Amino acid sequence: MRFRFAIAAVLGLASCDMIVVSALNLVTTTEFTVQGDTLLMNGEINSKTPEQFEAVIAENPNIDTLVELNVPGSLDDESMIELAYRVRALGLNTYLRSDSEIHSGGVDLFLAGVNRTIESGAIIGVHSWSDGSKDAKDYPRSSPEHEANRKYIEDMLGSDEFYWFTIYAAPADDIHIMTADEIAQFGLAN
């Protein structure tokens, strides 16, 4: 995501962010590496990521754990949610090593694991989403704009409390690094 903002700053166009996101959805931004029954993941989730994931799983049906290393977020929330529901349907576990750093959509994907493990030292960053003019917290709780993300969190964790926490933790253009107490409070690891 930082790369996208850097390009936007260099080009200096008001609509540049949308142009860059569209362009980055046309190329591969996620890297998968297989190590035995473990799938290592790096990079931003985009519209190509679910297809990449399916190809790796087809060739490696023994995969049982997805390890997120550096996943700064998602360029396409619909693709992230599609991928996450697939991870859950396959019964995969998710894992964060002590050197893992995940933000935003990377955190949402982590929640898809049947068993979720977080080593001490892993960095988990959350923030609000934005539609370009308003942040999530600017919409009433009953607003349909919340539903897809709220329902996803509820499906993964059994409650939508974590969703509401994330949208108030930091604005869309910032990040909140979760504390160990917050991670425990919302049951991110199980």
Key features?
190 residues, alpha/beta, seven-stranded mixed β-sheet, 7 strands, globular, disordered N terminus
Strand-helix topology:
Elements: H1 2-11, H2 16-24, E1 30-35, E2 38-43, H3 49-59, E3 65-71, H4 77-89, E4 93-103, H5 105-110, E5 116-118, E6 123-126, H6 147-157, H7 161-169, E7 176-177, H8 180-185
Proportion of helical residues: 25-40%
Instruction: State the end-to-end distance.
Output: 28 Å
- Report the portion of residues in β strands: 15-25%
Tertiary shape: globular
What does the radius of gyration come to? 16 Å
Helix and strand succession?
A: HHEEHEHEHEEHHEH
Unreliable stretches (pLDDT < 50, length at least 5) are: 1-16
State mean pLDDT (0 to 100 scale): 89
Quaternary organization: single chain
DSSP helical segment count? 8
Give a quick account of the main beta sheet: strands, pairing sense, barrel closure: 7 strands, mixed
Number of E-type strands:
7
The secondary structure category is alpha/beta
